[in-house]
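Listing S7. Sequence submitted for prediction.
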Amino acid sequence: MSTTRPRRGLVAVILWSYLILAALGVVALAGCGSSSASGGGASPAASASSGAITVTDSSGATVTLQQPAARIVSLAPANTEIAYAIGAGDKMVAGTSYDDYPAVAKSLPKIGDFANPSVEKIASFNPDLVLATGGIQDSLRGKLENLGMKVYVVDPKTYAGVIADIANLGKLAGTSAQAQQVADTMQQALADVQAKVGSAAKKTTFVEIYSKPLMTAGKGTFISDMIGLAGGANIGDAAGAGFPNFSSEVLLKDDPAVYIADSGSMSKPGVLASRPGFSNLTAVKDGHVYVIDDNLIARPGPRLAEGLHQLAKMIHPEVYATQ
């Protein structure tokens, strides 16, 4: 992680850990549309007679446990957040140095950070389920499985993919009922948003992930998917998959109607107008520049439901003002 691009606070550090690695091409965010890209689902191969639990993770790999996991290690803050949300917090035996939500997760024993988890540390906790992510952690799977560990990769490409991962982890942890409640809450958020903005004209929207260099969320990311669900047309898709750099000249030419920055990159909407040429943007002139909490759009977990609501209000404030 670069020390020449400081971000504010722990939230910013976590987001940077996820996204700068993605920008360097280590997070595989392309290829949405297949079943594996959407987060997988429960496999019909599960054997009721044996009691085995079989699901398909975000990478398309089959994960089978003979009984619900009792000892879980998480290799990413979002995975830890999901585990607690679905009622598996008492099964968590270790997490990363960036785990900060819920607050109890801060006291978990640590296996390293998101980018450099220690295989030896992970193994020392004798987990029967390891929750990994994609990209930089791809090479870990083989190492962990060679040591006899079961690994589920959480690397969703869409909002629906996040819901699928949550449901799958509920099955593996033996907490399906609570996981389904979380999934239902996320589905209801989507239904509520669609009821408000589903028939509204799409507004061109730009999402700023980082400012120097200017970085956005491109196609094949759950952030871009959420922009679409919230009634926007993500101009970042044209820059490619994942989290590409975006030319300021192209941005000024594309002139988005709505400009949304994550809170780790920009603290106040008014800051944007001070950048060379940005005062000419339609979003700036019309007062449609917003800052959103990183955690509500950057972590693929339950709080994306709140993030989706906020995105919709930012993209279509006129709809919410009349309802």
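Caption to Listing S7: primary sequence and predicted structure tokens for the chain studied. The chain has two domains: 31-176, 191-321. The radius of gyration is 20 Å.
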